[in-house]
Write a structure and sequence with these properties.
Layout (H helix, E strand, L loop, with lengths): L2 H14 L3 E11 L2 E10 L17 H16 L9 E6 L10 H6 L4 E6 L5 E8 L3 E6 L8 E6 L3 E6 L13 H16 L3 H4 E3 L1
Parallel strand pairs: 2-3
Antiparallel strand pairs: 1-2, 3-9, 4-5, 4-8, 5-6, 6-7
Helix pairs in contact: 1-2
């Protein structure tokens, strides 16, 4: 079993206790150390349905708490072996592709571009994200009226959120909310704010 495959089960429980879940894990060489990067997000409440908007970004305090929980969990296992590593816990940015039904549910009301396995890409606002299909409202164009497009997740090759500098009224956060996670990732990449989100082991 790879190091990556050992990390996830070790940290799933401690993060779940904080109301969080693991989105992805990456382990890459960094000189004599390894960089362990874990993307986390808020777990969806049981009350969330296909049209519920869940967009609140994680706070720095929440990421710091998660970092401590993950670090303690890894220290209690031998998943990392003897080689030293740097742990980085972060939240997904808006540039990360949507790959799971819960990703679409988090982005209800947001503008997304869906590229199907067959046919042209469509750009529209997510109005509903069920367990098997997502529905987007595509705005009217010069030759076509506004329409709803429903796609099964299995039929989507790629899906990404489009950053909007000014979102229509009643659709949630604006650019500041959209860029929160990306800016957080940029800060970490530049070496800022690492006391809260990065630990050396």
């Amino acid at each position: 079993m790879s190091v990556k495959d050992q990390i996830r089960p070790a940290v799933d429980g401690p993060l779940a206790a904080l109301g969080l879940l693991v989105e992805d894990v990456a382990v890459t060489p960094a000189g004599k150390r390894r960089l362990v990067r874990i993307w986390i997000d808020r777990a969806l409440p049981e009350s969330a349905d296909a049209t519920t908007t869940v967009t609140a970004p994680l706070t720095l305090d929440e990421v710091a708490d998660a970092t401590r929980a993950v670090s303690e969990a890894l220290d209690e296992t031998d998943a990392m072996g003897e080689q030293p590593y740097t742990l980085e816990v972060t939240s997904p940015g808006v540039d990360r592709p949507l790959t799971e039904p819960r990703h679409f549910r988090r982005n209800v009301t947001r503008l997304v571009t869906l590229t199907p396995l067959e046919g042209p890409a469509v750009t529209g606002r997510v109005v509903s994200a069920g367990p098997d299909v997502v529905t987007v409202e595509v705005p009217a164009a010069k030759k076509t009226p506004a329409r709803a497009v429903e796609l099964a997740y299995a039929a989507i090759a790629r899906a990404v959120v489009e950053v909007e500098f000014s979102r229509p009224a009643g659709t949630g956060e604006d650019l500041a909310g959209d860029l929160h996670d990306d800016q957080h990732d940029d800060d970490l990449a530049d070496g800022d704010d690492i006391d809260d989100d990065t630990e050396e082991n």
